[in-house]
Amino acid sequence: MKNVLIKNFFVLILIFLFGCESFQPSVQVLPSHIKKLSVQQFVNKTNIFGLEEKLKLNTINEFLLDGRFEIEPETKDSDGYITGEILYYILQPISYGPNYEPQQYKLRLIINFYFVDKANNVTLWSEPNIEEVLYFLSATFPGGLTEEEAKNTILINMAKKIYIRTIEGFGSVTGTSHKKVPQK
In whole numbers, what is the pLDDT of the chain averaged over residues? Predict the structure, then answer.
């Protein structure tokens, strides 16, 4: 009886160990009919001029570097497109020097973005409130950044997130994701 219990115990442990390690959500790719992508101008809901154009250009650059999809300038020529809104651009000092001059900053960028399948005329997925945060030293310090340099860095990082969510993360579940795959 004792040998049977020990064998069952080891079998349960093996099932648990191998079962936990083998589970991974399946990576889903964009539908096969999507060969051409375009990036629409993002709607800028902040008071910072030019964010929408820089984010669009950086996002296009990420897809061009990948090379899997043809990038079209107009959505009418594409199979699917990315669109979204820039909700917040918040620059706040987080540490000060002895004369109360800012020494370190925190820059936050929050956007919503969507992927639209034009063939089926449906939003395949949406990613609300995607956030990118950058901490940086004032330009007066070695290695510090100006606000313009920090802005460019955070927009490049956000474009990489958009690319990764579109190409590698499609269909994966995140805390705020409302992704959906059309049923055939």
Answer: 85
119 contacts 33 by C-beta, under 8 angstroms = yes
Side-chain-side CA neighbours of 114 within 13 Å: the count stands at: 14
Q: Which residue has the higher pLDDT, 78 or 13?
A: 78
> In the chain, which ranges are continuous DSSP H helix?
2-22, 51-66, 147-167
Tens-digit pLDDT profile for residues 136-146: 999 999 999 99
Q: Indicate the CATH number of 30-167 among 3.40.50.720, 3.30.160.150, 2.60.200.20, 3.40.1000.70.
A: 3.30.160.150
Q: Which one, of 84, 59, 83, lies nearest residue 71 by Cα? A: 59
The pTM assigned to this predicted structure is 0.77
- What's phi and psi for 15, nearest 5 deg? -60, -45
